[in-house]
Amino acid sequence: MKKVHMKKPDIKGTFHKIKNLKKEDIKAHWKESKARRQRILEERRNSRFAKKMQPVYRFMNRFSLVFHFLLACILNFFIEGISRHSLIQAWLYMIETPKVFLFNAYLIFATLMIVYLVRRRVFARILISVFWLILGITNGYMLMKRVTPFNAQDLKVLSDAISLTGNYFGKMELIMLIIGIIAVVIWVISMWRRGGQYTGKMHRVAALCGLIVSLLGYVVLTDVAIDKRVISNYFGNIAFAYEDYGFPYCFTASVFNTGISEPAGYSKETMEAINKDGALNVSETSLSDENKPNILFVQLESYFDPTEVEWLQFSEDPIPNLRKLYSEYSSGYFKVPSVGAGTANTEFEVLTGMSMRFFGPGEYPYKTYAKTKIIESAASSLEKLGYGAEALHNNTGNFYSRAQVYNHMGFDHYTSKEFMNVLQTTPKGWATDDILVPHILESMDTTKQQDFVMTISVQGHGDYPTEKVLDDPEIIVSGVEDEGKRNAWEYYVNEVHEMDKFAGQLIEALEKRGEPTVVVFYGDHLPTMGLEAKDMKSKYLYNTNYVIWDNIGLEKKDGNYAAYQIMAEVFDRLDIHTGTFFNYHQQRKDTKNYLADLELLQYDVLYGNQYVYENTGKPITEGHMVMGVKDTSISDIVEQLDGTYSLYGENFTKYSKIYINDEKQTSSFLNNTRIDLKEAELQDGDVVYVAQVGSSNTIFRTSKKYEYKDGALKELPTDPNDPETGRNAFVGKDAGEQ
Length: 738
Known about the structure:
Blueprint: H1 11-19, H2 23-45, H3 48-62, H4 64-83, H5 87-96, H6 98-112, H7 121-145, H8 152-156, H9 158-163, H10 165-168, H11 171-194, H12 204-227, H13 238-245, H14 247-256, H15 268-274, E1 284-285, E2 294-300, E3 313-314, H16 320-328, E4 330-335, H17 343-352, H18 369-372, H19 378-383, E5 388-393, H20 402-409, E6 413-415, H21 436-444, E7 451-456, E8 477-478, H22 483-513, E9 517-523, E10 543-550, E11 561-562, H23 563-573, E12 576-577, H24 580-588, H25 594-606, E13 626-627, E14 633-639, E15 645-650, E16 656-660, E17 663-664, E18 667-671, E19 674-677, E20 687-693, E21 699-702, E22 706-709, E23 712-715
Parallel strand pairs: 2-7, 2-9, 4-11, 5-6, 5-7, 6-13
Antiparallel strand pairs: 1-12, 3-8, 4-10, 9-10, 14-15, 15-19, 16-17, 16-20, 18-19, 20-21, 20-22, 22-23
Helix pairs in contact: 4-5, 4-6, 4-7, 5-6, 6-12, 13-14, 17-23, 23-24, 24-25
């Protein structure tokens, strides 16, 4: 066998040539490369194959619009096949709803009109096709992980998603994803060089007019399709909407259809009629300060009563604590705005009393309106009656922009994961909920008066592994034949069991505390388990469960409520009447035009002229929130034999970072009282402090500042106007998109 000889690369010679390169050499090289490229293109144009294909090219150019529409139909078919995880389902969708299919194909066709603006038409077609296919693949893959399809609002939480890739993707999946992305990028770049150019006369003005006409035609066609009920601009169920109306249209609608459009009949007179005699602006209660109860809302991630699934069986009741509460206290179904995802939207409805049905499809107000604007909430409403307002979440503070949103809602404090020493996590890496109990009690200790506490849990978060990860589960699940699905259900049910233990621990701690208290436990949405309405006892996918515990003798009164109604209901039972939207629900629930007037009210407050506030002023004008409830402090510094430093203090977490002269240092968290500095060199006069740092280098809160001198730290006087002192004000330096 002939040996293959590999020529040894002349690395030394190559570096020598690069070192001695002259400007003239570089110019000559590029000139030669350009000439070589032109020769290659000329040879291709004059090749025998090219000459045979000339008539074909002329035919395709002459009827390129027809071929573009065929390409659009092919792309749409594969996008739907990927989204539905079945080419057969895509075929059925195409033949059963041809008008919808062709409508979506036309949208893709309109984007392909960009091709006529450039000479590299082959490359442009490939780029546009890859763009649509990537969107379709993203949607298909996300639907494997959750029930909610891919929409434009997901792009606004992209930084959140990137930080959580380890929770959703296995290592092999991430490797394959990276390899796939790199391969596509390389191929697209290669087609830039190999795709050739259009050699005919360019008509860019006509092409631009054609593109504009096509896009305007899509707008007109959309209005006609909505009018003829071929499609809809209201997505009561976003997952079903994507199936019924197609991915291209639904995704595009989520890009451009955000906020709340002005409802018919909106006017000052209409709003005065809705807010008759200022009825929505009242803030009153018959309760004395001594009798006002603490009000706690606990949102349990992906929670519902697992026994609601018709065919699922368990070795024992997975929720004994909550089951006992269901039997003794007010409970029922809890209607939420989404399935499998959308935690922040359920939370938004509960806190504001506003309905998500009036916003754009798939919108997250936490990422649009509430992220940048002040908004009325239960926190601001109860503060009018003397309540303190606290928020907690055992996930990162920037997740869904909560640090900014809670500040805009009027909360006093927000304790996020950055202020917790999380010792236990689920097999999927989420913090367990038991960590929340002591932090809830600490939050209630921040004020002498009664408190409103909003707690968002995370333990039940998906996705749920199909492989066996629990060696000795407390709850054995049966009724599922497929082993992978059974493993996923067993994992989920055991996490629910742990969440139930957390609920029991919290009630026990509150009973020992002895203060009058009301607690509402509820689930934010069903888990991503592929459930269908027929699987549920309620025959409805948007029902979770709630229960209202109290130690003040409230009457047991079961009922079913929407997420945007529950706060008003609890307030009403306590004879608390405050907050524009909560007053509205108390006064108008089950009356004529209830939802229509709610839409008008939401539009007026968020996007309209705020007529409802005209006589009383806005209920909240600025935020005042502080991150965390405990100060971090440094009590001592010790120089080790190897020249490194150990800082001792209180309330450190793994998110505590040491700053020297406002520069973040490389440090190692050991425990809540010690952090080691590995690379820093301290000199007399250096200023040292600790900061709690979130994602995107957001500084949430800082300690007092200390001056280093003669091997010790001396506390510096606090400047009340220093924006870096997070003890007195909300700090959001370098806050990123998360």
